Each structure stands twice: as C-alpha cells, then as structure tokens.
Amino acid sequence: MPVRKPVQQELQMKIFSDNSKAGSTNNNPPNAISSIIGQDMAIVGDITFQSKIQLDGKLQGNISGTFLVLSESGKIVGDVVAETLVCYGKVDGNVKADKLFLKKSGVINGCVETSDLSVESGGILNGEIKSQTQSRDRKVADVAKTKPEPVSTMGNPALSEPQKA
Q1: Dihedral sign, CA of 157, 159, 161, 163?
Q2: HSE (CB half, 13 Å, CA atoms) of 39?
Q3: Distance between CA atoms of 115 and 2, rounded to whole angstroms?
Q4: Which phi and psi angles does 67 have, rounded to 5°?
Q5: What is the mean pLDDT, run by run of 10 residues, along the chain of 165 residues?
Q6: Domain assignment present for 74
Q7: pTM, whole model, 2 decimals?
Q8: Would residue 72 be called left, alpha or beta, if left means φ above 0 and alpha means ψ between -120 and 50 degrees?
Q9: Is residue 147 part of a domain?
Q10: 34 found inside a domain
Q11: Strand 75-77 vs strand 58-60: parallel, antiparallel, or unpaired?
Q12: CA 138 to CA 95: how far, in whole Å?
C-alpha cells in the first residue's frame, strides 16, 4: 500500500469545522486546508464553503467556495464555482474559477470560464474555454475603423476590374 503524502505539512485539519462556537480560536495557518472530504466519502447534494478544502472523495452536486483542491481520487459530477481550483481529479461539469490549475492527472469534462488558466502536460480538458477578461462589448464602430486591404487579382481575369466598352 503506497504511503500517502500530505498535501501540506503540519496542518491542523478539521472535518466540517465550526469556529463560530463561543471561546473557540482558529489556530490554522492562513494557507492551511480547513476541511478534508475523505476518499471513502460520497456526498449527494450541494456544498458551499468559505475556506480552503480538499476533496478526496466523490461529490454528486454543485460546489462553490474560496479554494478547492480536488485530489487524484476526487470526483465531482456537477458544477464548480471557486476563486481557486487545483484539479488533480475529475470534474464532469462546468467550472468557473478566477484561477484554475489543471494538473497532469486532472480531467475536466465541461465548459471552463477563468481569468488565469494553467494546464500541466497530461491534463485533459474536454469542452469550451472562456476567458473572464475578454471584452464582451466590442463595438462595431471599432471594427469599422480598420480599413480592409485591397484584394490582389493575382493575374485572374475574373477578379480584374470590369472593362469599359
């Protein structure tokens, strides 16, 4: 059985933690993963989070939040909305993320909308990619300002100027 490497060293991890209780303190480092959905877990339903989580198991539903790490064993059948997605696993659904890191073992089957995309060699992306920074309001006037170059007849008499009789 292979030894599983921790995603991040010296993490204090909690499953579905709730730090809103009176007297509780958050001792997690700012970049720490606050929740892990284990490899043996399968969730049916939507998940919303405001922290950094790692999904090792399966999710059938939509997920939205701040920072999501989808491990090699992780699978999502549904849409993902996140500020940052690091994908080592498989997503069957649409992804909307400010930053998307598709790793060599990662697979995304669906439309992707992102402003920052990184795909490692071997990563698989099946679907449409849209940039969030593309100008969607390009005006016809801007296009009209550019004058087309004249087309050469290249010796083709059918394309030459009509002759006067």
Answers
A1: positive
A2: 5
A3: 36
A4: -135, 115
A5: 42 41 47 90 95 96 97 97 97 97 97 96 95 53 48 52 56
A6: yes
A7: 0.65
A8: alpha
A9: no
A10: yes
A11: parallel
A12: 25
